[in-house]
Design brief:
Largest sheet: 2 strands, parallel
Radius of gyration: 20 Å
Helix content: 40-55%
Mean pLDDT: 85
Oligomer: single chain
Strand order of the largest sheet: 1-2
Strand content: 5-15%
Number of helices: 8
Distance between the termini: 27 Å
C-alpha cells in the first residue's frame, strides 16, 4: 500500500466562519485552526486527488490511467457526434490537453478521428473495437474501487451528495457571479456518467 494511504486527516480545530469575533480564514489557519467552509473545499480537493491517484494506481498494470479513462468514457457517452472541443468542455480541461490525449489514444488504436459529413474541417471522435474492449476492462476495475469507496453510503446519501456537488459545479461553471443557474451543469463523463450510476 502506498505511503500516501497512511497520511492522517487534518484534525485541526474548526471554528465558526461568521458572526461576532469570527476570525478570517487566514487568521484561523495561521493559528493552526480552520473554518468549516475552508475544511470542506480543502477536503473536496484531497478526495478528488486521492480518488484519481487510486484509479491511476490500479489502471497502471494494464497501461491505462484516469485521464485516458475520462477521455474514452466521454467519447463513448456522447449522444451524438463528439469533437475534441466537446471532450474539453465536458471534462473542463484545456483544448491542447485534450488534443495531446486524443493523439496518444489514436496512436494506440483506441480512438479514430473521422471527418464530419457537414464540415470536413471538423473531426468526429469514435472508439475503435479495441477502445471499447479497453474501456470495458477499465470499467470492471474502477467499478470495484467505487464500490469500496461508497460502501458506507446508501442510495439516498449518494443522491444527496451528488446533487450538492452538481450544484457547486454549476456555480463554478457560472463564474461564481451569484446568478442562478437555469440548467444543471453537464456532468463530467467518467465511468459513473457512462453507466448512469451515482
Amino acid at each position: 500500500m502506498p505511503p500516501a494511504m497512511h497520511r492522517s486527516i487534518d484534525t485541526r480545530e474548526v471554528v465558526r466562519a461568521t458572526g461576532p469575533g469570527a476570525p478570517s480564514s487566514f487568521e484561523a489557519y495561521r493559528s493552526h485552526r480552520t473554518t468549516m467552509p475552508v475544511s470542506l473545499t480543502a477536503t473536496l480537493i484531497l478526495v478528488a486527488r486521492r480518488w484519481r491517484a487510486t484509479i491511476d494506481e490500479h489502471l497502471r498494470p494494464i497501461g491505462q490511467s484516469a485521464a485516458r479513462m475520462e477521455a474514452l468514457a466521454t467519447i463513448m457517452a456522447s449522444s451524438g457526434p463528439c469533437s475534441q472541443v466537446d471532450v474539453a468542455n465536458r471534462l473542463r480541461i484545456e483544448g491542447p490537453t485534450v488534443t495531446r490525449m486524443i493523439d496518444v489514444l489514436s496512436r494506440d488504436g483506441l480512438v479514430e478521428r473521422r471527418p464530419s459529413p457537414s464540415d470536413r474541417r471538423t473531426k468526429h471522435l469514435v472508439l475503435t473495437s479495441a477502445g471499447y474492449t479497453v474501456l470495458e476492462e477499465i470499467f470492471g476495475i474502477v467499478d470495484g474501487l467505487r464500490a469500496q469507496l461508497l460502501a458506507e453510503l446508501d442510495e439516498a446519501d449518494i443522491a444527496q451528495l451528488r446533487a450538492t456537488l452538481l450544484g457547486l459545479l454549476g456555480r463554478l461553471d457560472a463564474g461564481l457571479v451569484g446568478a442562478p443557474v437555469d440548467d444543471p451543469p453537464e456532468q463530467p463523463a467518467d465511468v459513473d456518467r457512462t453507466r448512469e450510476r451515482a
